[in-house]
Amino acid sequence: MVWYAGVRVLDIRKYEAMVMLELDGDEREQLSARLDALDASFSALDRVDTDGVAPLVSVLSQRNVMREDIAVKLLSRDEILSNAPEQYDGYFQVPGTLE
């Protein structure tokens, strides 16, 4: 198997197929170098000691700022259906989409 600085050509060809691209040899070599640089960056994070560090869910100090979900009846069914072009048995009637 041919390697370009760590990433196999077969892997790059799989990526090409997924995104429907055709790269030439130079482009594959450049892509391989970029992927290796990304891999090296993430590998450096593996060496960081995170023992005793609590996971961070959000960088914001806010908690849930949404209002309480309170059910309020604004319109009656008859009021809502009064604007419907067609209705049946208290429901909107729409054209069928399946035969």
Please tell me about this protein's structure.
- The protein is mainly alpha-helical and 99 residues long.
- The chain has a domain at 3-46.
- Helix content is 38%, strand content 8%.
- It has helices spanning 9-19, 25-46, 77-81; strands at 3-4, 7-8, 87-88, 91-92.
- The strands form 2 sheets. It has a two-stranded antiparallel ribbon. A two-stranded antiparallel sheet has the order 3-4.
Q: Give the strand line-up of the largest sheet.
A: 1-2
Assembly state: single chain
Which range does the strand content fall in? 5-15%
Largest sheet: 2 strands, antiparallel
Low-pLDDT parts are 1-5
Mean pLDDT: 82
Helix share, percent:
25-40%
SSE pattern, N- to C-terminal: EEHHHEE
> From the alpha-carbon coordinates, what is the Rg to the nearest angstrom?
29 Å
Number of strands: 4
Shape: flat
Give the termini separation. 53 Å
Continuous helix count:
3
Provide the structure class. Answer: mainly alpha
